[in-house]
Write a structure and sequence with these properties.
Blueprint (H helix, E strand, L loop, with lengths): L1 H18 L20 H5 L26 E10 L5 E10 L3 E11 L3 E4 L5 E5 L2 E14 L2 E14 L2 E14 L6 E13 L1 E2 L2 E2 L5 E12 L2 E12 L4 E11 L3 E9 L4 E11 L2 E10 L6 E9 L1
Antiparallel strand pairs: 1-2, 1-18, 2-3, 3-6, 4-5, 6-7, 7-8, 8-9, 9-12, 10-11, 12-13, 13-14, 14-15, 15-16, 16-17, 17-18
């Protein structure tokens, strides 16, 4: 009964997002930094990599996936985002294949911006801030079904105005009968926030689904993942990504984004030696926007 209730709940919430077109209030949703790729692996795998980065911070996108494999890891990543902004991430992930606990601190740093009066005169500088502190818990419901939830506090500041809120994600990960395959669905960015400049900041609700299949060769493995994303304030988007693992030491990654307005190709590479790993991710932007670069270091213990 618990499993059925979870599936029904996610299906109902997901159907709302699936049937919605572009929302009448498109462009009015804040806290968009919650959707930025959370580490170089995700960035290189078309912004997803849900079933390949489970040892790191995939739980931020898919709350249930962290419990699938046994691991304990700590990581930090830095992303040179658009227009000289910086996205920083610190995360901890622990799973014993029965349950998973995760913590994540995310920060989008805009640097110092000029503050001018109505006449255009410079009167000082200010530093906008986006910050999220989030916890995760996931658990194995049956040998092939995992459920999880995220709960976090989010803070946004722009000059003298600020807003604080709570946000949550709910997800299921299933292991189909097909060998080395995974299917995940999630409803993300549910929550509410206080008013900023006399108006509440809306969270960017979305429904997301990911399907992956692995192929094993001698000392090598290949994983292919396809994903669909429907945000409440945007049209349907999709991604396809792949990762080639060589001897458990080198990871070659690539992806492509479909139906995105200014994004398409992504790529990256990772190296792992004993307990340490270093990963690099790159994503191309068009429409005169700069490309994105991300670097991360993690420790597995």
């Amino acid at each position: 009964m618990k499993t059925a209730s979870l599936i029904i709940m996610l299906s109902l919430l997901g159907s709302l997002a699936l049937t919605a077109g572009i929302h009448d209030n498109a462009g009015e949703y804040g806290y968009q930094f919650l959707n930025i790729s959370n580490n170089p692996i995700s960035l290189a795998l078309a912004g997803r990599g849900i079933h390949r980065g489970a040892e790191l911070s995939s739980f931020m996108y898919q709350p249930a996936v962290g419990a699938v494999e046994s691991h304990r890891s700590l990581g930090i990543s830095h992303t040179a985002w658009l227009d000289d902004t910086k996205f920083n991430n610190v995360y901890y992930s622990y799973s014993n294949r029965i349950s998973h606990l995760g913590l994540a601190l995310r920060n989008l740093d805009y640097g110092s911006l000029e503050n001018r009066d109505d006449n255009g005169f410079l009167i000082g500088y200010y530093s906008p801030l986006n910050l999220s502190l989030m916890g995760n818990y996931a658990r194995r419901i049956t040998p092939s079904i995992y459920a999880g939830a995220n709960l976090g506090v989010v803070y946004e500041k722009l000059n003298t105005d600020s807003s604080v809120g709570v946000h949550s994600d709910w997800g299921l990960t299933l292991l189909p009968p097909l060998r080395d395959s995974k299917l995940s669905v999630a409803v993300r960015n549910l929550g509410l926030s206080s008013r900023m400049n006399e108006e509440s900041t809306k969270l960017p609700l979305s429904f997301e689904a990911d399907l992956s299949k692995g192929f094993d060769f001698e000392n090598k493995s290949l994983t292919v993942e396809i994903s669909g994303i429907k945000a409440i304030d945007d049209h349907w988007k999709a991604t396809i990504s792949t990762e080639l693992e060589l001897y458990g030491l080198v990871f070659l990654r690539g992806g492509y984004k479909l139906f995105y307005d200014a994004e398409d190709l992504t790529a990256g590479v990772g190296f792992r030696w004993q307990r340490f790993a270093i990963d690099y991710g790159w994503a191309a932007f068009n429409s005169r926007l700069n490309d994105i670069h991300s670097l991360g270091i993690s420790y597995h213990f």
